[in-house]
Amino acid sequence: MAEGVTVAAEQLAALTEAIFAAKGMAREHAKTVDEVLIWADLRGAPSHAVQRIPRYIEIIEAREMNLRPAITIAKELRGAVLIDADRAPGQVSMSFAAAEAARKAKESGIGLALVRRTTHTAALGFYTRLAALEGMAALAGSASWPNMIYHGTREAGVATNPLSIAVPRGRGEPMILDMATGVVALGKIVHAARSGQRIPEGWALDQGGNPTTDPKAAVLPLPL
Questions:
Q1: 20 to 64, 103, 117, 122, 159: CA distances (angstroms)
Q2: With 0-12 CB in 10 A as exposed, 13-18 as middle and 19+ as buried, what is 48?
Q3: Whole-angstrom Cα distance, residue 131 to residue 126?
Q4: pLDDT tens digit string along 19-43?
Q5: pLDDT exceeds 70 at position 109
Q6: What angle do CA 192, 195, 196 make, to 5 degrees?
Q7: For the segment 138-165, what is each residue's pLDDT rounded down to a tens digit?
Q8: Is residue 81 within 8 Å of 73, Cβ to Cβ?
Q9: Are 164 and 178 in contact (CB under 8 A)?
Q10: Whole-prediction pTM
Q11: Are strands 163-167 and 112-118 parallel, antiparallel or unpaired?
């Protein structure tokens, strides 16, 4: 395994922003994306950080991500909004949703923001933290396609749908829970494969439904 290289967060952020801007993403959106990714890296969650960039580039080139989205509120109720993200970068649509949920909570005591037609959202804790910094408790969740097995099965049938909860804590940083509903987030298996590390027993199964500690063979995370 190659020796690691340490890069200052500011330099990495500038590079990340430049990469997405070079692909045609609006500069302010590129800045939001890099802020979320760097936030995850600085908190020891590389599975949802800059290692995602190659995958994001694939999504952009496949035109699954809209680099110039028109995010709109499709429906608004007293305490809720439905947001059409127009296939925006997930970091952009979720930051918008967090602000809208906080706005509704201030007006009505509770705020619900639902987002449709978005892309990979990265670390959910970033968005619940935004609300907690404004003095509110927040809960966020994300849906996905089936990529995890049920207990006792050997085929994917449910998603590792992540969730995050954040609550204010005086004047300091909020308390944040950010987790997958599997034993481990799928991104951590990808990170282990890229860094040449084995994964612990009980994390995942291979394509044949057999237990494995080889991250390159692991395709089915096990559920909690």
A1: 15, 29, 20, 15, 28
A2: buried
A3: 9
A4: 999 999 999 999 999 999 999 999 9
A5: yes
A6: 80
A7: 999 998 889 898 888 888 898 888 999 9
A8: yes
A9: yes
A10: 0.88
A11: unpaired
